Amino acid sequence: MVVKEKKLSRKLEEIHERIKAELPWEPVGPTPMPEMPDLRQWDMRLLKTYTPFYAPFCDLCCFCTYGKCDLTEGRRGACGIDIATQQARFILLACLMGCSAHAAHGGHILEFLIEKHGPDKKIDLGTFIELEAPNIRTVVGLKPETLGDLQIALEYVFKEIAHLLDSCHTGQEGSSLDYESKALHASMLDHVGMEIADIAQIVGFDFPTSVAETPLVDMGWGAIDKSKPVVLVSGHNPATSTVVIDYLREHNLEDQVEVCGLCCTALETTRYSDKAKIVGPLSRALFFMRTGIADVIMTDEQCIRTDTPQEAAKVGSAMIACLDKAMYGLEDATEMDTDEIVRRMVDNKEQFAILDSPKAAEVAVKVALKIAPQRKKGWVTEEEAIEMAKKCTDCKMCEQVCPNLFNIGGGITEVAKGNFDLIRQQFLNCIGCGKCEEECPNNVPIFKIMQTAAGEETWKCRAGRGPVMDTEIRNVGAPITLGTIPGVIALVGCSNYPNIEDIADMVDEFAKRKYIVVLTGCAAMVAGMKKDKDGLTVYEKYPPNFDAGGVVNIGSCVSNAHISGAAIKIANIFAALPLRGNYEVMADYVLNRVGACGVAWGAMSQKAASIGTGFNRLGVPVVLGPHSSKYRRLFLSRKEEDDWKVMDARKREIVDTVEPAPEHLAYVCETKEKAMPMIAKLCIRRNDTPQGRAIKLNHYISLYRKYIGAGLPEDIHLFVRRDADIPLVYKKEVRAHLQEIGWQPREPIGLPTLIGTYPTKVPVDAVIH
């Protein structure tokens, strides 16, 4: 026992040394640099109420050579695993992939920028941001002051990833709940990794910060100047694209070469250059590459098509792989003479991997300038599309593989008759997977035919602005926690949408209701891809401030850390709760008092899984689109049947609140009509004042009536504590309903907390300032 205590003491001393605990900006909390068991009790308390619901893709386990093992009907595999634990292991693996992608991105960016600026480069996020790294400060316990300090946090993330991945090995963890706890841990680490990456980018590339009104960026195929040589950057890592901009500026070519981007690299590049353009989200990648508009395609990492070399070759686009995560089997020309690379790419149409960013940038620009005059760029004409469409026999094979079950054959046969209306609508909603063409027995070039529907329309997307400012948090902290700002809605994630216009519709609906709406990644782009009757996008209609009615593009995928960071800032700046190594207190505050809801409507990647699960551990519920059921797991409550007890921290007594607030942590909706009332409901918190609760219930009821049907939501009685909670406009109707079902009033909780309702090192006093 003595030996064990000494080991723990030594470990804690090492942690304190790494996080510079002697710096007295805040006392160190109970869990600096937490390991897997350290926040397990918090996870188990969440999982007690929000029980994992599994929807297996497969009933077998094929992980080891004992398999395949049938896990149906209560069977266990050869190693002893059951089907729930196998699904949870898949979830952990997915979250680890996502966490690793962002952490490795951060590692590469740090390496690149430290080489450029040195490890002592100061972190300065501008006049209005003093709390620069809420996730790092909370989880790691470190206040990073330089790029070198970010490496300390990153090394911690890497260490934890290794231990978590170890637990996935055959013959390890045997509990689905413990795998879920590990997935929550990995996903919390993901938010640390994302924060490291974006802080480094902001500091090293001089991205916008401490400013709300960033420029509006041109977006869409029509925005691309096809008369110029075009360089397309695709992926998530700006270490390549920013260097292309640097090369163009140094050689006075910025007005002569068009730089455009797909996915998050597009968002990062437009944070760096006001001349760069956005093509669109990942769902537009295959479409755009097949047009041949890009003279040179440069890939970096994450969410890039694995067939980019083949697609580039089909249309005569040159192609360079710029990062070691995706080298496509290409010859590594990093050490080759630049002129020789250019010659072989131009004369022999060879493709290369070039892992030196400045060299890759120079080659890309030189090749684009040489081959652009020789290449023909143009849309498929309607006459050509009609001839192509005549090959279609309407066999329905394409429809069977379409994730959204579109009547593609019907659209193509209509084109053969000269009618483009249906195919135009299908193009707008297409997620760009290409399965239809792969399956077509007649080799109908469906994507080329859809080019005629693409049009030359342009949209606007606001450039990513980075962290929410401390001054904004001071302005909205009280209204959010009291409920008078009804909620913060974060639309994040990928472009695997059931309908691409859903995002703009949801943004518009909640912004006009005075919610704060924040966006990142593909969702941030797609929000701008719909215009109202006046020709305006949501970015032009609503202010860019983090305030009621604001629509804020935070940035790329790694900028999601600034959304979780904003929730932590509310607890630290507004409520003055210490955050250093104090994750449980921050998460408890967010769960009980910060009305926020994530919306990952098109989530498809492992990164989206870890981003969403990281929000869940912090106490933020997430609504997912229909395709996200394929992640295999949700966190659902059973309303009245579950445990809604909290500690009233002021009275020091445990109280059964009855109200499911928030009702779920991870929930799938089939349509935007079902999603919007649920999003409003998931912003309800136990800490709401009567005025705030009335505002939230007003939106819940009105959205329910607008999109679901007449009457009242069947669970409205669970969220009315006293008569003052009832919205004025519905007071008569709700009172009558409550009287009919025998509802009884109950007292609101003055200071609700889960601390004290489960075993934890954190004292109840810690939630009281």
Describe the protein.
This protein is an alpha/beta fold and 769 residues long. The chain is 44% helix and 11% strand. The chain contains 28 helices and 22 strands. The strands form 6 sheets. Strands 7-6-5-8-9-11-10 form a 7-stranded parallel beta sheet, with helices on both faces. A 6-stranded parallel beta sheet has the order 15-14-13-16-17-21, sandwiched between helices. Strand 5, helix 7 (238-250) and strand 6 (258-262) form a beta-alpha-beta unit. Helix 23 packs across helix 24 (583-593). The two termini are 36 Å apart. The relative contact order is 0.11. The mean pLDDT is 95.
Q: What's the end-to-end separation, in Å?
A: 36 Å
| Main sheet attributes: strand count, strand direction, barrel closure | 7 strands, parallel
What is the C-alpha radius of gyration, as a whole number of Å? 26 Å
Oligomer: single chain
**Count of beta strands:** 22
Task: Give the structural class.
Answer: alpha/beta
Average the pLDDT over all residues and give the rounded result: 95
Number of helices: 28
Residues in β-strands, percent:
5-15%
- Runs in which pLDDT lies below 50 for 5 or more consecutive residues are none
Strand order, sheet with most strands? 7-6-5-8-9-11-10
Shape: globular
Relative helix content: 40-55%
